[in-house]
Amino acid sequence: MNLFSDSLYMGPFSSQSHPHWWNDPFIRKAMQLTLAHDLRGPIHKTFRDAIYKEYDIELEPSRCIYDNSTYANYVCYIYREPVQASNSLPYYPDNRPSGMEPARVSFRAIRESNKFDELLVADSDLPTVERLWDEA
What is the pTM of this model? Predict the structure, then answer.
């Protein structure tokens, strides 16, 4: 399936074991596919149906590592697993190009991982970090 090949990020942060995609071209192509099949709704939910209709491939919906909810639309930087925006915070572990979205760190990683560094979240998010630590 070469539908998204030109959306693959091939810059200095690229990795074959953990590929990254340019968000805008990927979303644009996914939207074209969903509209071609007359599917309406959030792209992270309709894309699965569009792939099935176009290629007869059944995709499992992503599951959030924090609360197991379906259709998680971000990836936890530390665990490299799907996470909901509502169960994560922006995380700044590197100097990403301005065209890339900031990394995200899951509430689970904040609570459990020794790799989490509170200095890499915005000062405005520190109260959330402290609350999660207190609850753990």
Answer: 0.76
